[in-house]
Amino acid sequence: MNAPYTPGNEVTWLTPTYDGITVQSATVVTVIHTGPDLWSVSTTLGTTYANADGEGPQIAPLTEEISAQLNKSGGLFTVHPTNREV
Q1: What contacts 24+ positions apart, CB below 8 Å, involve 40-47?
Q2: Averaged over 28-54, what is the pLDDT?
Q3: Which listed residue, of 31, 55, 75, 80, carries a Cα 20 to 30 Å from 66's Cα?
Q4: Tell me, what's the pLDDT at 84?
């Protein structure tokens, strides 16, 4: 099974904050297969886990839409929740 990323890939890095999720881009440094459909992915912003689709708690593929928004917003932006009821 192929890893979802290789060193040098640009990815979306997600950081939970008190008022939403901060979105940035990061560069993949290392990828280690840790189990069926699971990889440990180290980036320039931290380490997290990703599945075969490249998705995990703090990581996602960098789409053209996210890349355009990052360029427009100076390299990071925050996604705010639309409903604060829990």
Answers
A1: 41/4, 41/5, 41/11, 43/11, 43/13, 45/13, 45/15, 46/13
A2: 97
A3: 31
A4: 61
